Amino acid sequence: MGKDVIIACDFSSKKETMAFLEKFGQRRPYVKIGMELYYAEGPAIVRELKERGHKVFLDLKLHDIPNTVKKAMRVLSGMDIDMCNVHAGGTIAMMEAALEGLRREDGTRPLLIAVTQLTSTSQEQMEDDLLIEEDMEKVVGHYAYNTKLAGLDGVVCSPLEAEKVHGICGDDFLTVTPGVRFADDAKGDQSRVTTPAKAKELGSDYIVVGRSITGAPDPLAAYERCVSEFL
Ligand SMILES: O=c1ccn([C@@H]2O[C@H](COP(=O)(O)O)[C@@H](O)[C@H]2O)c(=O)[nH]1
């Protein structure tokens, strides 16, 4: 299974995104398109990035009743994306519906993963705001188990939980992990963070890195630092 560094392109327009990616010359890093960029530019931004040779993770985190998610996933199945996602909190039934909607007539489909607990959520917030009074690792492990039962390919979790998830769901089950910072970076709104080197040690499959690359004085150097620590 290929490990990789995915850059979160959290930009508000195609113009900004392309100006950022120009800094990478002939390199074509795996990119993540989130809600901001997708809502601004629509499916055209996916086509543009794929035409340029990037792998694309479309991070829309669907979370709705099963029928609605299934129909939305059917639309996404027509797009040339490599990975997309839902919230595991939508239940096993919702994840099964998502998988059904995503499968194309020829049997192919992009990878489908589920968010366990957002990496911005702390233990305290989970207990106080969500009334989930269990240890974070246990909750993430449980949501990962549900995700595997539903037949999905893996989860979004913090690298801090990657080892636990692989212990429960197996080494082939993907751990796609935001919440990555260099040791001297600010956490910002993230809560469960660690470095690319630690993410590697804990067995994460993909690290998702946004501001530590996009906000760096030299984004290409920051990306290469991630690659050399993680791969
Ligand atoms: O639990 C989650 C799920 C998704 N994300 C997304 O990853 C990036 C992280 O960006 P940073 O700038 O490196 O914090 C961002 O696009 C989030 O929407 C996440 O952080 N946590």
TrEMBL record:
Signal peptide: none annotated. CDD domains: OMP_decarboxylase_like. Keywords: Decarboxylase, Lyase, Pyrimidine biosynthesis. GO terms for biological process: 'de novo' pyrimidine nucleobase biosynthetic process; 'de novo' UMP biosynthetic process. It is an enzyme of class 4 (lyase). Residues 4-226 form the Orotidine 5'-phosphate decarboxylase domain. Its EC number is 4.1.1.23. It catalyses: orotidine 5'-phosphate + H(+) = UMP + CO2. Pfam families: OMPdecase. Pathway: Pyrimidine metabolism; UMP biosynthesis via de novo pathway; UMP from orotate: step 2/2. One of its GO terms (molecular function) is orotidine-5'-phosphate decarboxylase activity. The keyword Lyase applies. GO terms for cellular component: cytosol. Substrate binds at residues 10, 32, 59-68, 119, 181, 190, 210-211. The active site is at D59, K61, D64. Belongs to the OMP decarboxylase family. Type 1 subfamily. Catalyzes the decarboxylation of orotidine 5'-monophosphate (OMP) to uridine 5'-monophosphate (UMP). Homodimer. This is Orotidine 5'-phosphate decarboxylase.
